[in-house]
Amino acid sequence: MIADIVVDLQYGDCGKGKIAHVLCKEEKYTHVIRYNGGCNAGHTIYHNGEKFITHHIPCGVFFGIKSIIGPGCVVHPDSFFKEIEDLESRGIQAKELVKVAANAHLITDFHRIQDSEESDIGTTRRGNGPAYRDKYARKGVRAIDDPRFSNYIVNMYEEIYENEDFQQKEIKILFEGAQGFGLDIDWGDYPFVTSSHCTVGSAILNGVPPKFIRNTWGVAKIYETYVGAKNFEGPDEIFESIRELGEEYGSTTGRPRQINWLDFDLLKMAARINGINNLVINKVDILEKLKSWCLYSGPTLYEFNNKEDMEFWIKSKLLLEVDEDIQVFFSGDKEFI
Ligand code: IMP
Ligand code: MG
Predict the structure, then answer these.
(1) Probe ligand 1: pick from 227, 233, 259, max atoms within 8 Å of CB?
(2) Three-class SS of residue 13?
(3) Is 0.70 surpassed by the pTM of this model?
C-alpha cells in the first residue's frame, strides 16, 4: 500500500483541489479519501475545461477512482445528495464512485441552525462545529445510522485491508485534505479555527499508518487569504487589487477573503509539522500582474525586486531551515490544469 497526502499550509483556499486533480491524472490511485471537514470546504477544480466546486466529494470521481468521505469527516446528507446529483447531471459517475465511511458523522439540520446562531468567529454556518462537538460528546449520529446512506456506506478497515478487488499491496491512496494549517483546531489561531484536524496527522487517523505514506504535498499561496471574523487584512491598498485579480471570494459562502502578505514563519511551521516533501506555492501570476513582491518573517516586511528574488529567498530558507530535500514548485493560478 502507498498513500500520498495533499495538505494546505495556510488558511484553506490554496489550491488543494487543483493539486489533487493533477495527481489523480498522473497516478493510478485506487482510492481518493477526504480526511477531515464537511461541506464548509469548497474545492475549485477545472476538469476538461469545465469549472466544478466540490464540497464533500473527493476529486477521484473525475477519473473513475473510488472516492471516500473518510471517518474524520462530517457529512450533511441533503448537501451530499445534491452534490452527487449535480455531478451526475454533468456526466460524472458520482453515484457509482462515491462512498461514505460508516463511522463518519452526520451534520444535522439542527447543527446548521446552532452554527448560524453561534457563529461569532465567522464560520461558514454549515454546521461543522456543532457536528464535531456532538461527535466528541458521544451524542453524534453516524452515516451508518442513516438509511439514506445505505448504498454508499463503506467499512474503512475492510476497504483498505480486506478488499476483494485488490490485494493490500496494490492499494494506492490519495488523501485529500480540507481547510488548512492556520485553521487547524490545535495549531491554528484559536478560537478562529475550524473544528477538525487539518494536518497530515488527520489523514493517518483515517486508517493508514505512517509507514505507508510516500509523498506529502503541501499547498500554499504566494500571498495569504483568510475568511472569518478576525481582522486579518493588512492596510496596504494593493490587497484590494489582489482580491479582484485573484478572485478571492469564498467558493462556499461567496464572502470576500481577507488578504495579507505571505507569513513565512507560518509556512515554515506548517512545512515542519506536516513533514512535507513537496511544496506547491500557487498564484504567483497574481503578484506578477501587480509587480509587487513582499512577505513577512516575524514582524519584518521583506520587499523583493522581482519574482525570482522572492522565490529564491523562500526556497533557500525552506531548504536550509526545514528540509533540504523538499521539492518546491511555484505555480500560476491556472497552471497544471
Ligand atoms: P467552520 O469550519 O465553518 O466552523 O468555520 C471556521 C473557520 O474556518 C471560519 O473562519 C471559516 O471561514 C473557515 N473555513 C472553514 N472552511 C473553510 C474553507 O474550506 N476555506 C477557507 N476557510 C474555511
Ligand atoms: Mg476552498
Answers:
(1) 227
(2) coil
(3) yes
